[in-house]
Write a structure and sequence with these properties.
Bound molecules: zinc ion
Largest sheet: 6 strands, mixed
CATH superfamily: Ribonuclease Z/Hydroxyacylglutathione hydrolase-like
Radius of gyration: 16 Å
CATH class: Alpha Beta
Structural class: alpha+beta
Number of strands: 13
CATH architecture: 4-Layer Sandwich
Helix content: 25-40%
Distance between the termini: 43 Å
Number of domains: 1
Length: 222
């Protein structure tokens, strides 16, 4: 008999950029983690409280405001409920520190004064593994959209938290001063496609897809 449990993954669109924040939880233990809480912290908290979840960690794929701008406030709100020191904030690769430190400046350009700079407890690096909800997640560094972008892979359920790397039918934008289009495609080809065609890709924007679908039909991967 297997006691392996499939995690619930819910998409919560946040910020005016409709960024997909992911709430991942184990139905048995009610422990959870959250990927890319860019904002709308009250909405995320309502969802956490509705299922009476205990959130152990917040993960950030990269330093853009719509992915990381709610992280600090979310942690404060969770710790007010669960206890101080109960939520670990796990960042992308350290190359994105400059972006995490400039969220407030970026957000001001959009009139989004509720988004804040984020200060992770730890940064991640290529090849790291994270133990979350008793399960192992692997970290891959996939620069191009931002220099420090990482993706988190759950091999057991075959789910990839892809941030702004690979989308349904397209890829992340690279028209920033620090973006690099060739590097992004190389990252996807070398680090994401080999994970397997059946892997479900949960992108930062838009609908989920699979690696197989994108390998077949994504025009940017030809
Ligand atoms: Zn981004």
């Amino acid at each position: 008999m297997s006691n392996v449990c499939r995690f619930e993954v819910e998409r919560i669109p946040v910020t005016p950029f409709h960024q997909n924040c992911s709430l991942v939880w184990c139905p048995q233990t009610k422990h959870a983690f959250i990927v890319d809480p860019g904002g709308d912290v009250e909405t995320i908290m309502e969802r956490v409280e509705a299922s009476d979840l205990t959130v152990d960690a917040i993960l950030l794929t990269h330093g853009h405001l719509d992915h990381a701008g709610g992280a600090g406030q979310l942690r404060s709100a969770l710790e007010a409920r669960q206890g101080k020191g109960s939520v670990k904030l796990i960042g992308p690769s350290r190359e994105d520190e400059f972006l995490l430190n400039s969220i407030e400046t970026q957000a001001a350009h959009f009139g989004l004064n509720d988004l804040k700079n984020a200060r992770p407890d730890e940064y991640t690096a290529d090849g790291d593994t994270l133990t979350l909800l008793g399960r192992t997640y692997s970290v891959s560094h996939v620069p191009g959209h931002t220099p420090g972008h990482v993706v988190f892979f759950d091999r057991q359920d075959g789910v990839l938290f892809a941030g702004d790397t690979l989308f349904r039918g397209t890829v992340g934008r690279t028209d920033f001063p620090y973006g690099n289009g060739k590097q992004l495609i190389d990252s996807i080809v070398e680090k994401i496609l080999p994970l397997g065609d059946d892997v479900v890709v949960l992108p930062g924007h838009g609908a989920p897809t699979t690696i197989g679908i994108e390998r077949e039909s994504n025009p940017f991967l030809r």
